[in-house]
Amino acid sequence: MADHPALQLHIPEPKHRPGEAADFSHLRLPRAGSVERPPITTSAYDMRELAYQLIRVLDDDGRAVGPWIPALDAATLRRGLRAMLLTRAYDERMQRMQRQGKTSFYMKCTGEEAVAVAQAFAFDRSDMFFPTYRQQGLLIARDWPILDMMCQVYSNSADRLKGRQLPVMYSSREAGFFSISGNLGTQISQAVGWAMASAYKGDTRIASGWIGDGATAEPDFHYALTLASVYHAPVVLNVVNNQWAISCYQGIAGGDESTFASRGIGYGIPALRVDGNDFLAVHAVTRWAAERARSNLGSTLIELFTYRAGAHSSSDDPSRYRPEGESEKWPLGDPVTRLKQHLIVLGKWSEAQHGELLAAVEAEVREAGRRAEELGTLNHGPLPDVHTMFEDVLKEVPWNLARQRRQLDEERGT
Amino acid sequence: MADHPALQLHIPEPKHRPGEAADFSHLRLPRAGSVERPPITTSAYDMRELAYQLIRVLDDDGRAVGPWIPALDAATLRRGLRAMLLTRAYDERMQRMQRQGKTSFYMKCTGEEAVAVAQAFAFDRSDMFFPTYRQQGLLIARDWPILDMMCQVYSNSADRLKGRQLPVMYSSREAGFFSISGNLGTQISQAVGWAMASAYKGDTRIASGWIGDGATAEPDFHYALTLASVYHAPVVLNVVNNQWAISCYQGIAGGDESTFASRGIGYGIPALRVDGNDFLAVHAVTRWAAERARSNLGSTLIELFTYRAGAHSSSDDPSRYRPEGESEKWPLGDPVTRLKQHLIVLGKWSEAQHGELLAAVEAEVREAGRRAEELGTLNHGPLPDVHTMFEDVLKEVPWNLARQRRQLDEERGT
Amino acid sequence: MPTMNMVQALNSAMDVMLAREPDVLLFGEDVGYFGGVFRVTDGLQKKYGHQRVFDTPIAEGGIVALAVGMGAYGLRPVAEIQFADYIYPAYDQLVSEAARIRYRSGAEWWCPITVRAPCGGGIFGGQTHSQSPEALFTHVCGLTTIMPSNPYDAKGLLISAIEDDDPVIFFEPKRLYNGPFDGHPDRPATPWAKHPLSEVPEGHYRVPIGKAAIARPGNAVTVLAYGTMVHVALAAVAETGIDAEVIDLRTLVPVDIEAIAMSVNRTGRCVIVHEATRTSGYGAELSAMVQEECFYKLEAPIERVTGWDTPYPHAFEWQYFPGPGRVGAGLRRVMAE
Amino acid sequence: MPTMNMVQALNSAMDVMLAREPDVLLFGEDVGYFGGVFRVTDGLQKKYGHQRVFDTPIAEGGIVALAVGMGAYGLRPVAEIQFADYIYPAYDQLVSEAARIRYRSGAEWWCPITVRAPCGGGIFGGQTHSQSPEALFTHVCGLTTIMPSNPYDAKGLLISAIEDDDPVIFFEPKRLYNGPFDGHPDRPATPWAKHPLSEVPEGHYRVPIGKAAIARPGNAVTVLAYGTMVHVALAAVAETGIDAEVIDLRTLVPVDIEAIAMSVNRTGRCVIVHEATRTSGYGAELSAMVQEECFYKLEAPIERVTGWDTPYPHAFEWQYFPGPGRVGAGLRRVMAE
Ligand SMILES: Cc1ncc(C[n+]2csc(CCOP(=O)(O)OP(=O)(O)O)c2C)c(N)n1
Ligand SMILES: Cc1ncc(C[n+]2csc(CCOP(=O)(O)OP(=O)(O)O)c2C)c(N)n1
Ligand SMILES: [Mg+2]
Ligand SMILES: [Mg+2]
User: Fold this and answer.
1) I need a labelling partner for A186 at 20 to 30 A (CA). Which of A160, B107, C235, D8 fits?
2) What is each CA distance from B245 to B253, B312, C55, C300, in whole angstroms?
């Protein structure tokens, strides 16, 4: 129509690019303690405004304030601090080992440790997790041996996954940690299926699934919300919004248009948005959602607002796409520092204790690392027996794989 | 945990099943004229309550009331009435012909005529439609010859689609009506792509896509909302909530938990919910959304609240899954009757004129039907030349298809 | 023994498994109250309750994702995809998840799910209600792919599939639901009742996965077929009078290579028949395997008689469908060499 | 003529097409500002603006849906799927939509889109960064499937693909991006600069779709290969000293049947090589076609040397990858018959 202006294509762009100064002043960050805490029986509709808030418990001075303060004693908080520190130390070492060529690939969760650790603490030990590759903290919080995790990263002779998976794609049935998929998103809808199975069996165990901000655009996020809504599945669905998806800022996934938490509203799923670097807030919010699920009240969507402080993976170089120093400017701070500060304010912790703890976890990582390397590294072995390659495709080895296994040996003879 | 009750699996069920009396008294239906009409520049966030309302213009007496009254003159309304009547008469005949074995399959849109017809009227003739199989009214409202549509339904010698598509899977480039897919949902995300292309080219044409309540669970609905949101695509996205998806009531798609319009909220897309049997309201709401798109303000999600008065398709028997007489109890009436009534109230129409119009459209359908049958029916032909079967897989016929075409002839010789 | 058509036999398989095994659930689009658009789950919700047999949103990917999650919990879900043509949205969950979970988790988890899908043409369903996408699954290691051709096998194989601890794609040739279609649409339909394999035990039994059946013994040429094409091949054999051995593969992967090789090594000739498009269809794999296994015994080129490399065109159902005429022509060509 | 590696050649193809044709757009995950995780679109957003080269949400199905819609409008979009392993969420839009639109609309609409995806192993990517899913596309009529093996072809074929009026699936063997990998991971990598086919014109040229190339003429046996395996086959030929003719298929569908048949009819022997899993891989179709076309000239069974029927196991990259040792063994077996 002649009387209308030409249409224009809008392509979202992050506020700042390399060469520019990082700046987060556009973020709307409610004061700690300012967001209400509705009863878990509240309907999604009635609590829909919470999807636009940001639940925070720790204030700038490290004090816990407001209605979301979780009932966590100092010992538990110290366990949380330890798990976060261990996660970080583990990440540091494995990243270094990857650089040294001992394995092919690594992914850290630096800056996001509170997400996995505080959430793990909010569930029962028998609840089931469907994580992404950036929730190694779930395993560590459940005291899963980092030695076992290292063996997976090295694809070595003690790798329970028999060298089949890319590093960090852990699996632990014992720890209630589902086999991580390299295909983004697929776990979040599976979590709903697991939760429905639990409900069908009259079990009391609930499930939880994680997905990144970027991956919310995948179908499985939509499936998870739809199915969890329709069947009132006892599942906690988590979007870890760490601002980046490899090189794409969260606006490319729609984050400039509305919060990821608000996605839940239209499916009739209660949604909470939480400061992901606030251990107490993350715990409280997750606990709220877990209680809701366990009380047959259905699913909750949680957006964990955090920041990917490191590179996407060992193959990535964020200086190519985000301003230098963006990480330091993240206004919600570092989850470890903030919990440490809180414990100190509580009078339950000191710099000296912290130094000791740090030394202890580093020693633990070093020691586990030494033992893991004895069990093998990708570059120098020993690896699992190569014949295991033909196993577990199906429960029984079918004729074609039996033949191929023989052929491998024959041809290696040539 | 021992102190928690056993979980229970919730399976949604419709309020009433065959053998029970139909009853819609649970529906919350705002009075006609009671819902505000925000300016098209309103943000999705600010107008989010509209996703839970129901925009209605025609009151029970057939009067147009409230802020959503569209600027339509009586002549246009009469054209709308005619298109709806023609759609209905066309449906009746083709369904009958299907029963007589002249084709394999048919799908009516009875009760939903206002959706397609009033919406078509709200767009420019050059705007592009990505419909489902239940928007034949779009073609009819654009004065596309029903003879051509019949030839498609008969897969006959004059079928421009060369007998390749299931009946009702129309396509008309000239009418701006995209080739209908048998795979649910796929068109709605394509509509966003088309709209982005138009924006990229600085065109003024916008796109619109349709999807059923049931099909909103498919990934393409999520893609459409995500992509339309991210790129501010000039597209109007329509969910036709006709309460049923074959045998599944809308609760199976999540409709018991929140409105389909409200799905837009979390993507930052303005959402409107409209009485789909109210020609004026449908037109007004669609026009609002079209204006928004055309003014570079991005996408709108519209839920058209209506009722599938007939069977899902000629293969379906709704008496197996929904109460008898449910259709008559639909509280929002019949779109044809309501528009007719409105025109009469306006003094621009009479029962006598209506009778004449009905007779005229029926004659038109009869005459087109006669001519279409001369051009062929599926059971008796003539059909298109069988060799066309090997064309249009690719632009040029590749060697394998050239061979197969030859083989067909050779083997028909045997 | 009762006589069942294919719909009844499949229904009976699920009935038996629902009764025996509390961890079996059925779900899919319209499978609950309505009993499925082909009535295959008819009556089962009423009998077992809507927690065990229920409707799902229209989201094939979500349906399979649910099944995968339930399988991880320990259930044995049976999911229906309303038409095989609509399985593509579930492709990622099937290929990247169901098929891989045992392997990638070092057998810590597995995926004991069955995905049923009506396939094939013959009912004027046009290009989106007629497809035979089996080759898209036979290429995916970790998936077992089955297509029965008669009520007895359908029930026994479906029970085996449900009891299997790995994911099974179970294709049901919809044209066979109500009768053993021989590819002559112009002739009166025969009901299953007249076919010996419509005698189906009421209770539990298995037909083993991975074992073919000799549908007709013969010496002149081996015909490899599955699903509807078994009946078409038998008709073509009868009409040409060629003494063909017709093998009903039943399971496509893992295929019964021994049965195939034994037969072709004996007959020296092979015709492969399927309804799916030719290029990269499962017939290609069969042809490759046969020539690998039987090269020195082959007296004529292996023939493939398949659907054309086009979508299934609505109006030309019977020109597209590889009927007895085309199979017969293939047989004659192979015998003429 | 400048020397380009595969990344540069592909980049140049898009650069040329963006410059010539305002209706060409590029998009995909990380392709915009960042220039792609393999740097294939590096610099193009800067040069052509972010309306023409942009990032998308992580939704492969949505990416292809956008392309289909844009194609219907009249643009020529080029979409990147970050890894071929992640193409499955887009499978429905590719199979049910892109591949069908011309046919089902009676050629009223068509789908001039190109979908690029890095494929194959050799970079320790594990099972979700190493797949070769080409056979899942070669079975789908309406799709053209391409896999180049060198910079010259990569550029010329990508230009042909973008200019083609039908949907093209364009697989880029990622192991070849930076050098012509011969399958010996232990030897020092050679850069493309030393390879004659790294001489790539800067401007516009086409390599025709549907035409194979003779990578090495020979008389004893025909090797059919594509992508990385062309180089591996050449290495195996050199190492075994067998006078093989190595055909680089370049286009898988529509395949250059004449070139294949002519060669095999002359050599009487055929080895087919691909990295994808064996069962129902594209090698099956090649094998079936070869025996159909060349039956009476075949002196030995056609051999397939392929990836095993397992996911690509991270630790056993080189035991999985069909390297020169395995190809050589295949060649020797075929020559021994
Ligand atoms: C289906 C699929 N598409 C693409 C990829 C490649 N990929 C791996 S991680 C990633 C970014 C994910 O971002 P986000 O979801 O925000 O998670 P984060 O890495 O920030 O934790 C992409 C695109 C993939 N693994 N799977
Ligand atoms: C991908 C896909 N899945 C399933 C079907 C089968 N099917 C056809 S129509 C239909 C119901 C659709 O309901 P809805 O979206 O509400 O549209 P309506 O028929 O009510 O207009 C189903 C399940 C299909 N065509 N495509
Ligand atoms: Mg992220
Ligand atoms: Mg509906």
Assistant:
1) A160
2) 9, 7, 11, 52
Residues in contact with A30: Cβ distance below 8 Å, sequence separation at least 6, in sequence order? A53, A54, A56
Q: What is the mean pLDDT of residues C267-283?
A: 98
Complex-level ipTM: 0.98
Residue in chain A nearest D128 by alpha carbon? A182
Q: Can you tell me the distance from the alpha carbon of D34 to that of D10, in angstroms, rounded to the nearest whole number?
A: 16
- Chains with at least 3 CB pairs less than 8 angstroms from chain B: A, C, D
Please choose, from the candidates D285, D166, D171, D267, the residue with its C-alpha nearest in 3D space to the C-alpha of residue D222.
Answer: D267
d(CA B255, CA B213): 8
B102 CA to middle of ligand 1, Å? 52
Question: In chain D, which ranges are E strands?
Answer: 24-28, 53-55, 76-80, 114-119, 144-146, 168-173, 213-216, 221-225, 244-248, 251-253, 270-277, 303-307
Q: Is A354 part of a structural domain of the chain?
A: yes
- Residue of C92, C103, C279 lying closest to D253 (CB–CB): C279
Q: What are phi and psi of A136, to 5 degrees?
A: -55, -25
pLDDT single digits (tens) D264-309: 999 999 999 999 999 999 999 999 999 999 999 999 999 999 999 9
pTM confidence score: 0.98
For residue A2, the model assigns a pLDDT of 54
Residues in chain C: 337
The Å distance, Cα A221 to ligand 2 centre, comes to 21
CATH number of residue B370's parent domain:
3.40.50.970
Distance from CA of C145 to the nearest CA of D (A): 12
Q: Is C129 a catalytic residue?
A: yes
> Which uninterrupted H or E stretch holds B364?
helix B351-375
Taking the C-alpha atoms of residue A123 and residue B294, their distance in angstroms, rounded to an integer, is: 49
Residue with tokens 């979040």: A188
**Which residue among the candidates C129, C204, C231, C314 is catalytic per the annotation?**
C129
For residue A413, the model assigns a pLDDT of: 75
The tokens for A357 are 């703890």
Which residues does chain A have within 8 Å of residue B207's beta carbon, measured at their own beta carbons? none
Q: Find the domain containing A238 and state its range.
A: 48-383
Mean pLDDT of D102-124: 98
What is residue D202's predicted lDDT score, i.e. its pLDDT?
A: 97
Distance from the Cα of C55 to chain B's closest Cα (Å) equals 7
**Per-residue pLDDT tens for B233-254?**
999 999 999 999 999 999 999 9
Strand partners, A397: none
Q: Is the dihedral of CA C126, C132, C135, C136 positive or negative?
A: positive
Pocket flag, ligand 1, residue A227 (CB < 6 Å): no
Of A137, A181, A138, residue with least CA distance to A161: A181
How many angstroms separate the CA atoms of D173 and D146, rounded?
A: 11
The reported pLDDT for the residue numbered A1 is 47
Q: Look at D126 and A166 and tell me if their CB atoms are within 8 Å.
A: yes
B164 within a domain of the structure (yes/no): yes
Amino acid letter for position A102:
K
- The overall average pLDDT reported for chain A is 97
> Could you give the number of structural domains in chain C?
2
Tally of CA atoms within 13 A in the half-sphere of C196 that contains its CB: 1
> How many whole angstroms from B312 Cα to the centroid of ligand 4?
8
- Residue B218 counted as domain residue: yes
CA distance C186 to A262: 58
Under the banding of pLDDT at 50, 70 and 90, the label for residue C133 is: very high
Distances in whole angstroms, Cα of residue B84 to Cα of each of B50, B120, B307: 27, 11, 15
Residue B225 in any domain: the answer is yes
Q: Quick one: which of D264, D132, D148, D263 has its CA closest to D208?
A: D148
Residue type, A62: G
Q: Which domain holds residue C74?
A: 6-198
Give the dihedral of Cα atoms A31, A33, A39, A41; nearest 10 deg. 30
Question: SS3 of C164, please?
Answer: coil
